[in-house]
Amino acid sequence: MVAVDREELRTMAAGLQGDGRDAATGTGRIACAERLGAGPQVRRLLEIGRRGLPLAYDAGTGEFAQTVRRSNEPGVPVRREGTSLRYAAMAALGLSRLDLGEQRAVLGGITAAELARATGVLALEQPDPGAVAIAAWAVAEVAGTVDVALFSRLGAEISSGRPIETVALSWMVTAAVAAGGDLLAMGGAMSARLLAEQGPDGIFPHVVPAGSQNRWRRHVGSFADQVYPVQALARMSRASGDTELLQAAERTADRICALQGPDGQWWWHYDARTGDVVERYPVYSVHQHAMAPMTLFDLAEAGGTDRTAEIVRGLRWLDDHPEVDEPLVADTVGLIWRKAGRREPAKAVRRISAVTTALRPGMHLPGLDRAFPATRVDHECRPYELGWLLYAWLPPRGGNRS
Fold it and tell me: Which GO terms are recorded in the biological process aspect for this UniProt protein (predicted)?
């Protein structure tokens, strides 16, 4: 663990002073939120993203942490823990939306394009296809380079026929769209594999094919397992003109929006067979401020339904959450706490609910909410969360990538 003291916080904040421009100027997504009264909240969150990402970055090693966690040590507000190549690539995508000067202030002198290229080099040594996919996406979109070696790895992964996480497969599609050209054909084949596993109500399982998992887990897909396919299919549809992909993405978006909680919560686990919620908690902050907006805006821009109202409902949960009393947006530190979850041992309710719904769709044990209430805040923030926040709301930056 690496401590980040108060003096370092002050230095980072001084280095990240913006140029005074209005964040809403020229940004269609913020303008959409503005029309529903959420513009000030979005700008406040974007400032958190700018301030928080340096806390997760080690300029000495060029690595992003796995997480930044609140510290109880006097004078040390937060600590960096671990490292993550996936999160570095996501941070590069988000930081690419900032001016070059802001990028260098966050990254100790380098740009998002340089960070993306570095993740591409490191990903070649990774066995994780998800890390390879997100790095290929970042290199293509941020650095403007098609890394042939990375896409060769992805092609080999698909050709192997091995089970693959839905999220990783979705990132492969999005990476192929970002690369364009001949790689769109690869993206089309990957999209077909995704579509083959979509449930009748639009819900995706956690792994493709679902049958490769055990009986108790094969029907369950997380929120991430829904939004990344929607994003991938929407972008592939826009690039290829394939309306079937857009319709498939719309089915998923329709379902998760229909299931959105009464206070704007995006629930955690879904049943791919029935389209029902398997387990509601935790509610993750990144789903509310970044992943849902990023995906639903992408879908609308590809010709799908405008779901700004659902996006704004999700945003409002960050400030008005019935589960917990304490703030989730930690302005003084420059972070957004990760989630509001249950007080439970080892994800007990998730496991119980997966088993009961496997035995009988829709079956939930009574009393679980009373026994394991969702009253706990997880005081950590992962860099991808803030990277996606910037990426979701800020427009692509023109000009020199460096």
Answer: carbohydrate metabolic process
